[in-house]
Design a protein that fits this description.
Number of helices: 2
Strand order of the largest sheet: 1-2
Helix content: 25-40%
Order of helices and strands: EHHE
Distance between the termini: 32 Å
Number of domains: 1
Shape: elongated
Strand content: 5-15%
Largest sheet: 2 strands, parallel
Length: 68
Amino acid sequence: MTGPILFYAGNEGSIEGFYDNTGYITDDLAPKFKALIIYAEHRYFGESFPFAKNVSLDAEHNRYLTVD
């Protein structure tokens, strides 16, 4: 690969939603610069849960849901 890497940090939501709504990055920037796009999904949002989805937000598990 010879182009840059565009890293999209996302927000509190599923990665599919970000991909579907970032046309400027996918349709304009990446092709123009021959860039690779990497999307990150925050834990506890979308499908990215560190524990089973039905227990991830329980008090004993959500201690990992921090800004750190």
